[in-house]
Amino acid sequence: MEKREGVKRVLITSIGGGNYGKDGVKYLKEYNKTVYEINGKKSKVTTYMPEIVEKEFDVDKTIIIGSTGTMWDNVYSVYSNIKDETYLKNLRETERTSDRDTDIKELNISKLNEELINKVRGIVIKYGLNREEIFENFDSIIKLEEEFNDEDEYEVILDITHSFRSTAFWMFLVMTYLTDVSNKKIKIIEVTYGMYEAKKEDTDPAPIVLLSSFLEILNWIKGASELKQYGNSYYILNELKDSNDDIPEDIKKELRNFSNAMNMNYIGTLMESIDRLKNLKEQINAISGPAKHIVPEVLMNFIEDFDLKESDDIKRAYLLQATLAKWHCEQRRYAMAAININEALANYIANSLKLKDKGNIKFDPNSEAKNWLRDLCNLPNINDKYKKYAEVYHHTRRIRNEIAHSLGNEVKISDDIKLLEDFSKIIMNLLKDENVIKEAEEKLNLLENITTRKTSGNIVAKSDLRLEENKSSILILSTTNLAENEKNELQVKWGFQDKNIICLNNKEIVKWKKANSDRELKYFKDKIISNLKEGDYILLHGDYLKMNKMKGYAIDATNPLKPYRTKILIFSDRVSPEDEYFKEI
């Protein structure tokens, strides 16, 4: 495997050893001299198998995990150019007398690490005979992360040939930690195992088996987990792009569409994606390779859960929203649950009251439905039959606004989570019968009240406001022209006279979109100077950096050319049509 330029390679391995008793005397074990074969190439004769892996993969540094009985003398002999005989003798004596009760401090690993600092790092662990020792070992092994800096990119080879049987599990934990927890730029590229016992004859080379397929299988399992839990196919499509050729392109495309729709909460797109996946069932079930154990089952479960067998697309949409709400809640994605419960209820009300019929196209159906629900909430002594609809709408609207506006007002988060869990369990039942809502409207006449109140309210608002008109001017620095309803809000709520609303022309809008540097923004600063005075406003809309620079200029009163502060409006985060378009900062 060719090494990429600038990438450092690290081998993480373990070394065995031990001693045996004969006539009451302990003797050190030794590895046999062996010829190994890797990638079809035979090695030199060696008693130290990791050096064959180091050569094959052009390893920069080796990290070795072992106990006090490990053949550290062999490690030192292979790597050291000094060959301190006294140190070698001390290592061998510690190894010879070592057993499971030997304190790891009795083995002087520090000298080896200091002398071989650029080649080898040795980590001494206990035998791991109980839970306490296992966690002590974990603390020691995780320190190997110190060998990886934050800047460089690393490729790691794991070798599981020697030492205790449990060492292979340690290697698995190391692999999981480095790839899933560590923030270092680390990729596991191979797992090796020197299969000494596979030799037929003593003269045969021992094969070094490459087990990267295990890594591939683990990655497929990780991809399956993300797809199953979150509806995310990105790991399978992006991280496994070199091994997902068994998935047809049509299915890959639909996997991405499905995940995008789930994460954007685009209900229409999700319904289309589910329909297309249903049409691909035969191809999905014919997937081969590792993907056949993962993708078909997960996708079939999604199709079964989200295919609601409803011919009316409007009903299907709000029933899917309710189904998604329950699914998101189970995945602890509470914000998405709140949004889907709230919107499912609004769509259900709009459909029940026929607000989406052709005769009602002048309305914003969902806005009318939410007004209806809001009025239902405000009714005194509400009938128990309708009370649950009002309660669900009230709380999900409050939670949704809290999330969308990042208000930070709610401190009892566990109470809101409990509400969402309860609501997600009952929402499907609430949406089953549209006659409940029709009956409520017949008795309460809420739609008629909304229309009357809206008409009279608008007249009063406009007439009252004209009594004290805002004499200030406002300069609109926006990447788009204001819509009519946005302009109306500036006139009605803020009192700006039409002649005092200064808009950019189309050429200036393009210029504002592209402006980033101080030189480019000077044109708009000059426009403020020439058009505005103390107490006037600017409306800012654009990227954050640009808005921040202009905000600083607007509130600065130390500039001799503009010795006054300018007030600032920005667009609000609107959750519903009732919310205002602008807010002052």
Task: Name a few traits of the molecule.
5-stranded mixed β-sheet, 14% strand, 8-stranded mixed β-sheet, 585 residues, elongated, alpha/beta, single chain, 51% helix
Give an overview of the whole structure:
There is one protein chain. With 585 residues, this protein is an alpha/beta fold. Helix content is 51%, strand content 14%. It has 23 helices and 15 strands. Helix 14 (334-352) packs across helix 15 (365-378).
**How many E-type strands?**
15
**Percentage of residues in strands:** 5-15%
Mean pLDDT comes to 84
The span between the termini is: 58 Å
- Radius of gyration, rounded? 35 Å
Can you summarize the main beta sheet? 8 strands, mixed
Shape: elongated
Low-pLDDT runs of 5+ residues are 454-468
Outline of the structure:
The chain contains 23 helices and 15 strands.
Outline the secondary-structure elements.
Blueprint: E1 7-14, E2 19-22, E3 25-28, E4 34-38, E5 41-46, H1 50-57, E6 61-66, H2 72-79, H3 85-97, H4 109-115, E7 120-124, H5 131-142, E8 153-159, H6 167-180, E9 185-194, E10 206-210, H7 212-230, H8 234-239, H9 249-264, H10 267-279, H11 281-285, H12 295-306, H13 313-330, H14 334-352, H15 365-378, H16 384-405, H17 413-430, H18 435-444, H19 446-466, E11 474-477, H20 484-492, E12 501-503, H21 506-514, H22 518-531, E13 537-540, H23 544-555, E14 567-571, E15 582-584
Parallel strand pairs: 1-6, 1-8, 4-10, 6-7, 8-9, 11-12, 11-13, 13-14
Antiparallel strand pairs: 2-3, 4-5, 9-10, 14-15
